[in-house]
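Exam revision sheet. Question 4 asks you to relate a sequence to its structure. Input first:
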Amino acid sequence: MKIFMALIILSTSLNVGAQNKIELKTYRFAGLKKDDSMWSGIYTAKSGKIYIGLCTHADAANFYEFDPLTEKMEHIADLTIFKGERGSGIRTSGKIHVTFVEDKSGNIYFGDFCEDNGPECIDPSSYRGAHWFKFDPKSRILTNIGLISQNSGLLGMAIDPERGRLYGLAEDGHLYMYDLNKGITTDKGRVDDWDICRTIVADGKGNIYGAFPVNRIWKYNPETDRTYDLKNVLVPNDPNVSPRTMSNPQIDRKTLWRILRWKPDEKVFYGITNADSRLFKFDPYEGNEGSMAPLALMCADRYLNGDKKKIPIATLAFAIADNNKIYFAPVTTVAFDYSAESWDVRDERQFTSRLNNKKQPPLSVLVEYDINSGNRKELGSLITGDGREVFGLGGACYSHLDNKLYFAGAVREDDPKYIAGQIDETWNYCMMLMSYDLSSGK
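Answer key, structure tokens:
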């Protein structure tokens, strides 16, 4: 009887966070483009406006601007139209997969890529290449400023505003640099192999960092124009967690960091690991190479005391607010990849579904970490104001204008007018921008 009661208490404690509901205000994207996914592409500019890049498999990447003060959503560009690709029978620019960056004058930059956008009968070599883009918010002009690569687009991006340089990590594992003053793109060489890191970052001195298997970190130093691997600083990961794919278990995304942000007042990075959504602090200036400190698991509460193999791969919905707290929105079940176009994700979903013994929607919860106290707690499950489930989220940012968190991702959709895709051939969804007011908790 005592054991039975203890199990009830344990079960209750693990699920109390999920019983709380956090209502998010929703905003539809302008233009009814029916974008079906989003990865990393959300950024709050110094002006307070939010820039979002959405993706559509076999179609177009779309670029949006949102003003938190007026709540106006504007569609800036459909990249297939902007680049003259639509109707040409070629592979198209279907993804913006990078976090937008900003120069000292307030101009916004990003890069695109194709990946698997286009029917298989269309020759992949027909793609006209990935490019750098500049958007001037004052003139409202979007400019294609140069070719990155003929075949490989960007998965991660960073900026060195002092030197006027853009950096992009491409699908081919190469680091590309664009000199804003000279208008020249330079291939800095291969820094990565499959699976490519999704987030590269710049510190306060213009050094660029990325992760590569297994648990390793590379650094590009602009002073020496040299890229090298850190020998003694590793991405913290649990070796007991299963690989994402058994076809190449050591060359695996789970051994990389998922996302991280620079915190200029502390001069450190905070980030999330892929495998178990572990929060870490990376100080690039401590000692010869820097230091790494694991802090807390940011996965949903239900996994904290259970089998770590069941923790879904981390999302990209990560933000640091002005209250010195970190917010992360993991999913509660299975791997999340919207309509799951890639076979390795489908395999992973089947594996995690078997571990959980049933097919379940990938719902999102919000987890908070207080940097000052070190306290971590799950705030609750995310729903929309009209009661719809929030599925996986592809990105998050904080707005200083209204003290709100903003998320972009998949929401359950019942109206055929807005349905953009279907998760696991079961749950219809659309893409939405959502906000959570940290001042009022709404």
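Marking note for examiners. Residues 1-30+315-442 form one domain.
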